[in-house]
Amino acid sequence: MRDLLFVLILVAAAATAVVLARGLFTMASGRDITGVRSNRLMTARVLLQGLAILLVVLAFVVGGAAGD
Length: 68
Prior knowledge:
There is one protein chain. With 68 residues, the chain is mainly alpha-helical. It has one domain. 85% of the residues lie in helices and 0% in strands. Helix 1 runs antiparallel to helix 2. The protein is elongated.
């Protein structure tokens, strides 16, 4: 179970980094005049960060329950 959580945490962190990089490139390119795409990317980043934090907390709970 801990290995699965570790992999899920890595996937969530990587997805967060990808969305962050896309948001930075979108902002730097200057093509998103209205900001709609930037807002969508920021929302996705916040949700992915929340998921990653939730998985870390779950990993601590599972690790604590196992007595490690």
